[in-house]
Amino acid sequence: MKILFFDMEFANGKVPGSIYSFGYVLTNAKFKLKQPQTDILMNPECVFNDYVRKNILAYSLSTVKSASTFPAYYKRLKKLLCGADLTVGFAAGNDTAALRHACQRYGLKPLSFSCLDMERLCKKFPDHKGAHGLSGCVEAWCRETPANQHRSDGDALATMMLFRAVCEQKGLEPKKIAKLFADCIIPSLPPEPKKKKGEPTEEPAPGKSRAPKKPAPENGEPAKKPYRRRRRRRKPAAGTGTQTPQATGGTTRPKHPSAAGNNQPNETK
Q1: Cα(132)–Cα(140) distance, rounded to whole angstroms?
Q2: What is the C-alpha end-to-end distance of the chain, expressed in Å?
Q3: 222 in a domain, yes or no?
Q4: Residue 217 lies in a domain
């Protein structure tokens, strides 16, 4: 089993998808490293926010700006995120949104994967309800302060430590945790909007087209139903002696002129 723990840092909140570092830790189900802890730097191609530059940026600006841009690492990120058996992050909704915006920014296909959000998972347990943020949760669950905070690979490692502590203290394996708390797993792509009632659910088969809808009347009135001619009732054959009521008076009249004024039935021929 491959478990990917990841984290990202952004240069400017006003520039969606301005990722300047992607850090990750790849382990097996026993939390043994499968690859060395790694931090990928990339040029965000934008001006850094002053707060980020002064308080969060763990590298020199020249080092970051000399790195390649997001498209150069697209295939590598896709292999990591979409190829893992379980992907884990903290407050992962921010990271998945940044990935979508970065792909849109550079005209790349969005990456589709599911991610277990440790922030949501920790809130499921009564333990350490007062802990907030990644460092606060790590200190509460692991009884130690994470190193290299606000550096992507350091935060990815801290996320791994937190997940390992939760699994150990609850006596559950990673796969079991993901199954029991499926509502803590978020998709990297937002769900498609539901179709309204009455809309077609399937596309027409190749070579076939849907019947065009009839245009609505210009005056806004409902379209009238087509007129159907009423079928005329056939008259009985003459000489049968049957009588029918007239349309206006309701009286009966004989079917044969010879019967006028005579209530006796016609003779049988």
Answers
A1: 9
A2: 102
A3: no
A4: no
What whole-number distance in Å separates Cα of residue 113 and Cα of residue 188?
5
**Mode of pairing for the β-strands spanning 114-117 and 86-89:** parallel
3-state helix, strand, coil in the chain (%, to 5): 35, 15, 55
**In terms of Cα–Cα distance, which of 55, 250, 10, 39 is closest to 156?**
39
| Block residue for tokens 């934008």 | 46
Count structural domains, the chain: 1
- pLDDT tens track for 97-118: 999 999 999 999 999 999 999 9
Residue 159 to residue 164: CA distance in whole angstroms: 9
Question: At 170, which helix (H) or strand (E)?
Answer: helix 152-170
Q: In CATH, what number is assigned to the domain containing residue 155? A: 3.30.420.10
Residue 158 sits at φ, ψ, to 5 deg, of -65, -35
| Alpha-carbon distances, residue 76 vs 25, 68, 110, 187, 252 (angstroms) | 14, 13, 14, 19, 96
Confidence of residue 48 (pLDDT cuts 50, 70, 90): very high
Three-class secondary structure of residue 5 per DSSP: strand
pTM of the full structure = 0.71
Tokens 């809309």 belong to: 199
Label residues 206-222 b or e (16+ Cβ within 10 Å = b). Answer: eeeeeeeeeeeeeeeee
Q: Which one-letter DSSP state was computed for residue 20? A: E
Position of tokens 């190193």?
147
Report CA Rg, the chain: 38
